[in-house]
Design a protein that fits this description.
heterodimer, A: 550 residues, mainly alpha, MetI-like fold, two-stranded antiparallel ribbon, globular, B: alpha+beta, Rossmann fold, 4-stranded antiparallel β-sheet, 25% helix
Chain lengths: 550, 361
């Protein structure tokens, strides 16, 4: 058979460009970071590690991180599983609204969530009397606020589509509802529960924005400690060592989740449609509904309070803080918030374009189905490689940029491109998660039909692959844009002091004393929340059927 | 000068991985950087789907590839289209080898079991997809012409999601015919449809193919469909060609018991068995295959015990026990209610299998 060189070269280039990008802007910084921890003076020494590990502060930070992650995961599961049942396995009027409310937190930037909870528990807040400001409990509550949505959507999505017949068979055979749940339903849901738990643990363990805003000095996590060490103490070696520890924690939790999942996954038939879903009944669903109500309160209370507080001025009520956003608050501590909005939008546009170009290239390459086993194997590896940034914390990316891209051969420190590039790296896995399922779901016969009808490889690509991928582009654009708008982890390291983005400004304002600053910070947080929520709402309208639940 | 399609000693092989527990990519967990488990070494094996088949299709001729599922008929069709590589052998058109001709340069038409319409294009654009060689202005009028040919005039602006299964398959037919392919490849295009629709569309398909003079290779597992449409029928089993012939030849003289059985001959009699039915010696050698019309009720015939009587659409199926102990079917206009009936063998309605395979009983 004739060896066809042209197409192979084309696909090689399509894979090579994103690989090179990922190599320079992800692998290199992360590797440099690890190197900084292991070889602080050019020679391999574990001294830096040892001193970091030996310090009681590190022990406390690691313990806090793990404890917060475990508590946040358990709370999210405890709230999310009953809510998944009520919202996806019963029918009642207003279910659509309830589902939407529960999923709101998922699209909110972490800084906004942090500010919302802070507005609740600060001494002047409605729950101020509880003295929860800066406590372990409030951080866990905020983590649960975020991640309950992950559990509800992952488990609920599977639960709604579960074939009801095995459960019916079990019931006919004499099993009590409790036994049916334990022996039929729970095993069927186990993969979804395990995967959502692993995901939530990962999100909690690498939570940054929430902890930065909410956690008091006593409740620093690995992520915030890295920031503290680099930005306040300028101890890069110790920070690098901590980053390596964080990488290890994340890797272990990913491996465990993968093992758990492949053991639990079983073939199951999914059905579509609402026919088998019973109406809501008090006797059966009552307690689960109470929990769901609690979830709704957990979501509504901080957000509602945030809006209310942003409208309260020193002298009463009014939009003063919002006016100050545009006009800029007076006084020596003023930060030009209006400029920050512009910065955020410009950055988000750049980051989105970058993430989309890379995402389309990668997903086109990875969705090929080569005949050779070597080719299939290579694509499977490639697929995994581009998912890596999802498992590495944004703080690590930001910090890695800081220590690698600040001197020749690549000095981007003063370049405006640094922040969008970091955000594109963070958003790339999400873009791929949307585009890949759409491309993989394309019936290969469509390509064959096009080829038989006389379309060359280029036209097949354009009229089948790209045409179908474009259905996912709306959602992918939304994901990328919203991620970039709300991104705080990497941006907090990289944004120049004179050109902050909106989340950075919110964080700075909240950290300053004074009623005016806090009010303006809250108004900015509301604005940020509205911007991301709007982007996500628009994007969700364009969600293609094949895309995964989140 | 050879005209039309020539397939010589075609071999198609697949490599499959047994025990491949990898989940399809879109069901993999969202977060995963542990690669899926590697298949065990030695678990791959090669399957020969098509094993040395030779076949000719002349101008305007419709040839059916008939076989059970897994017989290799679809693989052969895909190899002709160029969608599967040939391990050996050749596919040629008008004497010119097609091995180096890419799929999109072969100018063949192809229809699948599912319509495989482009969901992002409307009906008219789907039909016009293969017409890129025509000037833009002509495309929609040609598309409209072919939509009319398949009985869907005025459907050009419809979305493909609004079509019923039968309509979608007609659009697919119009789409593959519009570029005037020199050969039409039909991969069980009707088997996903219900029976009544299938019977109607077989007629449409035959009319349209003959009206356009397009030769065709029609893959099917349905004997009636093959006989209704094809000029010649090729029977495949386990990747090998068992027999090629006109429907009449095939029906009267199946080359082997396997062919006869696949065509619908349920019972096979040896010479001696046939003699005991009182019809004398039929053939010098070989087996006699009994088809649905081979036995007829005759009061003067051999009396055989009745095992069962079942009412079918248009006839009553009477199961009788032959002297050899085999059970055969006699078709009668109405139920007899008797314990035994007189039966005669119709020598014009049996198949004589020359290749007397003793295992056929």
């Amino acid at each position: 058979m004739r060896l066809r060189v042209g197409p192979a070269l084309g696909w090689g280039a399509a894979a090579g460009v994103p690989l090179a990008f990922l190599g320079v802007f992800f692998a290199w910084p992360v590797a440099a970071l690890v190197g900084r921890g292991l070889f602080p003076d050019g020679a391999l020494t574990l001294e830096g590690f040892a001193s970091v590990l030996a310090s009681p502060r590190t022990g406390r930070v690691v313990t806090t991180t793990l404890a917060q992650a475990v508590a946040g995961t358990l709370a999210s599961l405890a709230l999310g599983l009953p809510a998944a049942w009520v919202l996806y396995r019963t029918r009642f009027p207003g279910r659509g609204i309830a589902r939407a409310v529960v999923t709101i937190p998922f699209v909110l930037p972490s800084v906004v969530v942090g500010v919302a909870f802070k507005s609740l528990v600060i001494s002047t807040g409605p729950l101020g009397f509880l003295g929860l400001d800066g406590s372990f409990a409030i951080v866990v509550a905020a983590l649960a606020f975020f991640n309950t949505a992950v559990v509800v959507r992952t488990v609920g999505g599977l639960w709604a589509g579960l074939d009801g017949r095995p459960a019916e068979v079990a019931a006919v055979l004499g099993a009590t509802p409790r036994r049916v749940f334990a022996t039929v339903t729970l095993p069927a849901l186990a993969p979804a529960i395990a995967s959502s738990a692993a995901l939530v643990f990962l999100f909690c363990a690498s939570a940054y924005g929430v902890v930065m805003v909410l956690g008091g000095p006593a409740y620093g996590t690995i992520e915030t400690e890295i920031w503290f060490l680099t930005n306040q103490l300028l101890d890069l070696t110790a920070a690098a060592a901590l980053s390596v520890i964080q990488l290890v924690v994340v890797t272990i939790s990913l491996v465990i989740s993968e093992r758990l999942q492949s053991r639990l996954t079983q073939a199951q038939r999914l059905r579509t449609g609402e026919s088998g879903i019973p109406r809501w009944r008090w006797r059966r669903d009552g307690w689960a509904t109470l929990v769901t109500g609690l979830v709704v309160v957990l979501v509504a209370l901080p957000l509602g309070n945030l809006v209310v507080r942003s409208l309260r001025t020193a002298s009463g009520w009014g939009p003063d803080h919002y006016v100050a956003l545009v006009a800029g608050p007076s006084g020596p501590l003023s930060i030009p918030v209006g400029d920050a909005i512009g910065n955020s939008l410009r950055t988000a546009v750049l980051a989105t374009v970058l993430a989309l170009v890379l995402g389309v290239l990668v997903s086109l390459v990875v969705s090929r189905r080569p005949r050779s086993r070597v080719g299939r194997r290579a694509l499977s590896v490639l697929d995994q490689v581009f998912m890596l940034p999802l498992g590495v914390s944004a703080v690590t990316v930001g910090f890695g940029f800081l220590i690698t891209l600040n001197r020749p051969p690549l000095d981007l420190r003063s370049s405006m491109a640094l922040v969008p590039i970091a955000q594109a790296i963070v958003a790339l896995p999400l873009v791929l998660r949307v585009l890949l399922p759409v491309l993989r779901a394309i019936d290969p016969r469509l390509r064959e039909a096009a080829a038989v009808l006389g379309a060359g490889p280029g036209r097949v690509l354009a009229s089948v692959d790209l045409a179908m991928a474009s259905r996912g582009l709306g959602l992918a654009t939304g994901f990328a844009f919203a991620t970039s708008l709300g991104e705080f982890g990497a941006t907090s390291f990289l944004a120049r002091p004179d050109a902050p983005t909106l989340p950075v400004v919110v964080f700075r304002l909240m950290g300053r004393p004074g009623w005016e600053n806090q009010g303006t910070g809250m108004a900015a947080a509301v604005l940020l929340a509205v911007m991301t929520a709007t982007v996500m709402a628009l994007a969700e309208r364009m969600r293609p059927m094949e895309a995964t639940t989140w | 000068m050879v005209t039309g399609l020539t397939v010589r000693d075609a071999v198609v092989r697949y490599t499959t991985t047994e025990g491949d527990t990898r989940r399809p990519p879109n069901r993999r967990p969202i977060l995963s950087w542990v690669p899926p488990p590697r298949p065990k070494p030695g678990a791959t094996r090669t399957i020969t789907a098509v094993d040395g088949v030779s076949l000719d299709v002349g101008p305007g001729e419709i040839v059916a590839l008939l076989g059970a599922s897994g017989s290799g008929k679809s693989s052969l069709l895909r190899a002709i289209a160029g969608l599967e590589p040939l391990a050996s052998g050749s596919v040629a058109w008008d004497g010119a080898d097609l091995a180096r001709v890419a799929v999109h340069k072969r100018n063949f038409g192809l229809m699948f079991q599912e319509p495989a319409l482009f969901p992002n294009l409307d009906v008219g654009a789907n039909v016009a997809y293969g017409l890129h060689a025509l000037p833009r202005a002509r495309r929609s009028s040609v598309a409209a012409e072919f939509l009319e040919l398949v009985g869907l005039p005025g459907f050009a602006r419809r979305r493909v999601t609004e079509l019923s299964g039968g309509q979608a398959q007609r659009v697919a037919l119009a789409r593959s015919l519009a570029p005037r392919p020199r050969l039409m490849l039909l991969d069980e295009p009707l088997s996903a449809l219900d029976r009544a629709l299938r019977e109607r569309l077989v007629e449409v398909l035959g009319e349209v193919l003959r009206a356009t003079g397009t030769p065709a290779v029609h893959v099917t597992h349905d004997q009636d469909e093959a006989f209704a449409l094809a000029d010649r029928v090729a029977v495949l089993a386990d990747g090998a060609l068992l027999q090629v012939g006109t429907p009449a030849e095939l029906w009267r003289q199946p080359a082997s018991a396997a062919v006869a059985r696949f065509l619908g001959y349920g019972t096979f009699l040896t010479d001696a068995d046939a003699a005991t039915l009182g019809v004398g010696r039929l053939a010098a050698s070989g087996l006699v295959g009994l088809g649905p019309a081979s036995l007829v009720l005759d009061a003067g015939g051999v009396r055989l015990p009745v095992r069962a009587e079942n009412v079918r659409r248009g006839y009553v199926s009477i199961k009788v026990e032959l002297p050899s102990g085999q059970v055969a079917e006699v078709r009668a206009p109405e139920a007899t209610g008797l314990d035994a009936v007189g039966v005669r063998l119709d020598p014009d309605a049996v198949a004589v299998v020359r290749d007397a395979d003793p295992t056929a009983r």
